[in-house]
Amino acid sequence: MRSGFIAVVAVLALLCPLMTAGARAADDQAIKARLDEFKAAWNKDDAAGMAAVMTDDGTLINPAGVLAKGHDEIVKLLEREHATMFKESTYTISEVTIQSVTDDVVLADVTATITGVHRPDGSAAPDFDHHVAWVFVKKDGKWLGAAARPYQLLGGPKPEMKSVK
Q1: For residue 157, what is the DSSP state?
Q2: Which helix (H) or strand (E) holds 110?
Q3: Pairing between strand 105-115 and 90-102?
């Protein structure tokens, strides 16, 4: 009897990390799908669609330092940006790295580029290469952005300095 119990415990010890890894992979895919929803809404100038990937009390601080708290303010900020500098722009994501904080909270680091940006006078502006630190939370089984902090790196590190490895 005791050896049977030990065998069951040993099998569970081997399977638990596999089940956790499988759940983590499913969560990562769900978060990436949420980011794809944001990108698709961006590319249609759909501010409400972009805000829909966030919690009702989410926050967004744009690279200019403008803070939008909650769904309505986020929609208003995105509508303003997409009526001017980002109107008809294209958002592409080149890299996503997801780090689990808890089972229901993750940090997603996103490297992205916006093309088709306009200056205030309407002339073409350079592409906007940037990074976004997203905090995602799982609510009622669904991953939603609780906070988004896009920023542009100034000049970027030299190639040999990109990692401390």
Answers
A1: -
A2: strand 105-115
A3: antiparallel
Secondary structure (3-state) at 161: helix
User: SS3 letters for 17-36?
Assistant: HHHHHHHHHHHHHHHHHHHH
**Is the distance from CB of 125 to CB of 117 less than 8 angstroms?**
yes
Rounded CA-CA distance 103/76 in Å is: 32
- Placement of tokens 């986020």 in the chain: 74
SS3 69: strand
Among 64, 41, 66, CA closest to 52 = 41
In degrees rounded to 5, what are phi and psi of residue 24?
-65, -40
Maximum separation of any 2 CA atoms in the chain, in Å: 80
Backbone angles phi, psi at 58, to 5 degrees: -65, 165
Closest CA to 48 of 84, 73, 85: 73
Q: What is the mean pLDDT of the chain?
A: 87
pLDDT of residue 96: 96
For residue range 29-61, what is the model confidence (pLDDT) as tens digits? 999 999 999 999 999 999 999 999 999 999 999
Domains along the chain? 2-155 (3.10.450.50)
